[in-house]
């Protein structure tokens, strides 16, 4: 496992897929044109590799009685009363839902819209152009792929992704020019927003505002710009299988189509798109360092006969260098509050995450004490 995780291009020859399924996966992957290629070809039946087991598929109706919290950040920077209110709402939402929507967050709408449009322009380029970027190389900062876990998951998702790792080695010229300026501007604004959100989350934990920022949590960010084409048989597959995010924090924007769902009190609840909002999602690593106070929650995306749907997730995953150990923050532990998780290297977390596909159970039990 360790060796496979270190290899630049993972070796899938040992994948557990049945031989005929593996052949179908390889043939599909070799087209390098993703599910958009299938949708454009006008297929009316879903290829077998995308068909999920009935246990993993939504059984309608989804639960309509619950509403994901929407938190207004208007005035939080300079009005102490507004700030206290927002900190309280963020504390409640992070500990019960693990996911909420932010409005009046200060990122100009044209930056968000520009990113979604830029992503759309990329995904709608001729397939020969996109194919040049199609890759599963973990070391490649900018790439396009259909299902990063294609050879690991039990069933594939109806989704293509353009991804970018905003690492120090990122060469902006590697970003496709149809979305380069938009992506760089979006990356900077999301970094600023993540720092503001970390301040509020620190206060919500009773820590000094700069605590979470100061342990480099806003570094190591990478982006997934997803494209969900219209699906011919949406009731048989998913846009994104259920999962918890491999990050401290994820900031997500989406267009108006909807389909994202979050698991709350045993129900799958729709996250209804709010124009201009940013979805904040607590990741597994924040659950660990908040000692379980903040929840990393399961979420998924339904497939849809309508499309395309566009969304862009920015994951803040911390820095892996320097053997830095992350564990429950000392300041929130006491005689009565003992740590629930052991200290871990990010490398260890990501090795466990990368060994499994989406659609499997949370991996946090690997790290509990
Ligand atoms: C993700 C994710 C949701 C979406 O990328 O981790 O959950 O709406 N995306 O695309
Ligand atoms: Ni996610």
UniProtKB/TrEMBL annotation:
Record has Nucleotidyltransferase as a keyword: no
Molecular-function annotations in GO: dioxygenase activity; metal ion binding
Listed InterPro entries: DIOX_N (IPR026992), IPNS-like_FE2OG_OXY (IPR044861), Oxoglu/Fe-dep_dioxygenase_dom (IPR005123)
Key words of the record: Iron, Metal-binding, Oxidoreductase
Domain Fe2OG dioxygenase intervals: 219-318
Pfam family, one: DIOX_N
Family that this chain belongs to: Belongs to the iron/ascorbate-dependent oxidoreductase family.
Protein name per the record: Fe2OG dioxygenase domain-containing protein
Organism per entry: Zingiber officinale
